[in-house]
Structure to design on (296 residues):
């Protein structure tokens, strides 16, 4: 979505106009980051029945990027004009999130509110431009996933490993979690504190990671994680414990030992054929679930 124009991609005519409230298209002037924060703040201050769930999907730092001088000035130490623009978008979003947290403080809800922040994928390394309403210039340098390999649209760690954090002053003590988790875990995890039972629901792919968050479990057993990207399944990956297999189109499967090679520099498929076969069996099992879902 263009930050000021609020339209979607130029080559998707049915979806060019997407900005709406309560299922009705609206036109509001302003930057999408500010408008998103203002809507969230207005809702927090409004009349409603607690408890509440507020989902705030910022457009930032997705392309196209357009930022005002105040956000660029805070990042003038960055030499690359493209990276500076990206950082300005992140700074703008950070300020907007701060306004939402301030609203929780102002309404005396901060201590008893769980805040979860995460991204949906790794950063995009560059952007060709011209896909969205102008200004949508080419950005040959954009986000950086260093030191991970790959970027958005790929299934190397740079495309799928993202930061995340939770804050709940009334319930969670500060801690750091290094066990692999997945975005699909949030549904069964958030259901727990609000009293919704998900145990035995085989329609949920995720796991309840609440014991990891509250510190009652520190060393969970290895789990299997599975990815299939795009309708043609051009990217495939499976992780189990420290081992991960990755495949792109018709190329051979690659095997990586993330414990000793987190940057996925060395394919060890030929050295560990048994491990490769074990992860391929997990892939076959998960792929069959996809097919069952497609047929239903």
């Amino acid at each position: 979505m263009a930050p000021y124009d609020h339209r979607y991609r130029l080559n998707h005519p049915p979806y060019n106009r997407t900005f709406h409230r309560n299922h009705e298209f609206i036109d509001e002037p302003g930057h999408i980051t500010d408008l998103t924060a203002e809507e969230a703040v207005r809702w927090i201050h409004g009349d409603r029945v607690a408890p509440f769930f507020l989902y705030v999907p910022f457009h930032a730092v997705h392309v196209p990027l357009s930022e005002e001088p105040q956000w660029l000035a805070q990042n003038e130490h960055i030499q690359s004009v493209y990276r500076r623009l990206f950082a300005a978008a992140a700074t703008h979003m950070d300020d907007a999130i701060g306004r939402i947290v301030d609203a929780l403080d102002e309404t005396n809800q901060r201590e008893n509110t769980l805040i979860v922040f995460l991204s949906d994928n790794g950063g995009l390394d560059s952007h060709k431009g011209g896909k969205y309403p102008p200004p949508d210039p080419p950005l040959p340098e954009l986000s950086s996933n260093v030191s991970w390999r790959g970027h958005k649209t790929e299934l190397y760690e740079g495309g799928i490993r993202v930061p995340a954090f939770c804050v709940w002053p009334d319930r969670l003590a500060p801690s750091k979690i290094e066990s692999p988790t997945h975005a699909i875990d949030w549904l069964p995890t958030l259901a727990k504190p609000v009293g919704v039972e998900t145990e035995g629901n085989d329609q949920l792919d995720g796991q309840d990671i609440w014991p990891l968050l509250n510190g009652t479990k520190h060393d969970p057993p290895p789990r299997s994680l599975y990815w299939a990207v795009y309708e043609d399944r051009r990217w495939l990956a499976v992780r189990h414990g420290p081992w991960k297999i990755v495949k792109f189109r018709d190329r051979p499967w690659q095997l990586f030992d993330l414990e000793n090679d987190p940057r996925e520099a060395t394919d060890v498929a030929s050295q560990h054929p048994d491990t490769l076969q074990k992860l391929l069996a997990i892939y076959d099992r998960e792929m069959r679930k996809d097919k069952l879902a497609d047929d239903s």
The mean pLDDT is 93. The CA atoms of residues 151 and 261 lie 17 Å apart. DSSP finds seven helices and eight strands in the chain. Helices lie at 32-45, 69-73, 81-106, 157-160, 186-191, 210-213, 273-295.
